[in-house]
Design goal:
The protein is built from twelve helices and no strands. The chain is mostly helical. Helix 5 packs antiparallel against helix 8. It is globular.
Length: about 350
């Protein structure tokens, strides 16, 4: 990991911190439902993508339409039939992981998976009073707002020097099959578990079981799982510290927003120095987004939520890694699904 910040790194840190804060403050000030989307999506867009161009914008817009259509059509029609909806969701996951594995539409697959997983989790508890249509509209609005915020912040805090494009890794067809089958199996099992048990408050754990699949292989998922658990621990403790400092002022939008900006800017340094991927720093950033977006309100502080989030995330990651290892080992026994990292 580099130890020196470039001028572009500082600009990206300012974009990430300002984007998360704007999404959080706007959604809270206007009392929009599901503020978790509005806080989290600017972090995803500005944290995972250091530039903004037509190809990235098109992928992000496509990731607005696809999860919404999947939730409304698939879950809307077959949500009350678990044995039917599970294979349909598995096919949907397989399509998205296939896009990620090929590489050209990786961001479309990744953003769609996050949006789809969050919406499916909430939609599965529609009997508890959660409106699916309001959920989908909130998600679309959050993505569009994230794009507007990203546009504005790239103008206010532009890169000061050209960036070198990252080289694309070549994969054989066996590796692509391996990654698609592996990730689809784990994501579908995660969906089934959260459908079976009453885990409406465990959105962080469900999201973590999907996010650790972003490297698409066992070796990458192992590192990603450790980094996400560590990032969640750090994020929860820093959020708790902010809560203790704010005390009764946590329901004051200005102070809550300012504390979020400080936390995100501070952690963004580690995130950009590590290459801007889904590492420990990114795990901390998404922890902030979920805790502030979902749990911080005048009626509820984040102390209990932070403690519960960490314990549930660790359990979800540990169980997911066990399944990943088993499926990875089975797939590597056959040449047509043997991964190129297998030795």
């Amino acid at each position: 990991m580099n130890s020196q910040l470039s001028r572009n790194d500082v600009q990206q840190m300012l974009r990430i911190a300002s984007g998360a804060t704007l999404g959080f403050a706007i959604s809270k000030a206007l009392d929009w439902p599901n503020p978790i989307f509005f806080t989290l999506y600017p972090i995803l867009l500005l944290g995972l993508v250091a530039v903004l161009n037509g190809h990235i914008i098109r992928q992000f817009l496509a990731a607005t339409i696809f999860p919404a259509a999947a939730v409304l059509v698939v879950y809307g029609l077959f949500g009350s039939h678990p044995l039917l909806i599970t294979p349909l969701i598995a096919i949907t996951f397989a399509f998205l992981f296939w896009q990620m594995s090929k590489g050209t539409l990786y961001l479309f697959g990744a953003f769609s998976l996050v949006g789809l997983s969050l919406q499916l989790h909430f939609a599965s508890y529609s009997s508890d009073g959660i409106d699916i249509y309001a959920l989908v509209i909130s998600n679309i609005g959050a993505i569009l707002l994230a794009l507007i915020i990203a546009f504005a912040l790239h103008i206010v805090f532009p890169d000061e020097e050209p960036r070198t494009p990252l080289p694309k890794a070549a994969k054989d067809k066996a590796s692509i099959r391996h990654e698609v089958i592996l990730c689809t199996t784990v994501a579908t099992l995660s969906f089934a578990v959260f459908q079976t048990f009453d885990l409406v408050d465990s959105i962080s754990a469900q999201a973590a079981s999907v996010l650790i699949l972003f490297p698409l292989c066992w070796k990458g998922a192992t590192l990603s799982g450790w980094q996400r658990a560590l990032g969640t621990l750090i994020g929860c403790n820093l959020a708790l510290l902010a809560q203790l400092i704010l005390l009764n002022y946590s329901d004051t939008l200005f102070f809550a927003s300012f504390s979020l900006w400080i936390l995100v800017f501070f952690i963004s340094r580690q995130h950009v120095l590590s290459g801007g991927g889904a590492g420990t720093g990114f795990g901390v950033l998404t922890t902030f987004g979920i805790l502030y977006g979902q749990s911080l309100s005048p009626q509820q502080d984040i102390i209990y939520s932070a403690l519960y989030r960490f314990s549930s995330v660790v359990v979800a990651i540990a169980l997911s890694l066990c399944v990943i290892y088993v499926v990875h080992s089975l797939l590597n026994k056959f040449q047509p699904t043997r991964h190129h990292t297998f030795t």
